[in-house]
# Entry
Amino acid sequence: MFATLGRSTISFLIMCFIWGATWIAIKTGVSLVPPIQFSGARFLAAGALLLAFWWCAGHWVPAIAVLLGVIVLDRWGCLTNGPR
# Structure
């Protein structure tokens, strides 16, 4: 069956499955923890996955000091709309 499908078709089907499954995960997650906390955890996990894929692909990854500096600046409100 997969021999007749193209690589792009298979990739599209995988993307549709993942996209559809996220709705179930969000609905379950929001029922367990506050929405803003769940949203933050989702963005943190997505950033970590993207950074890992970027690194596995052989691209340059910023030093941990740079990443920590961005986190500190964000916590102080320098990158967003004010201190928290």
About this structure: The mean pLDDT is 78. The two ends are 54 Å apart (CA to CA).
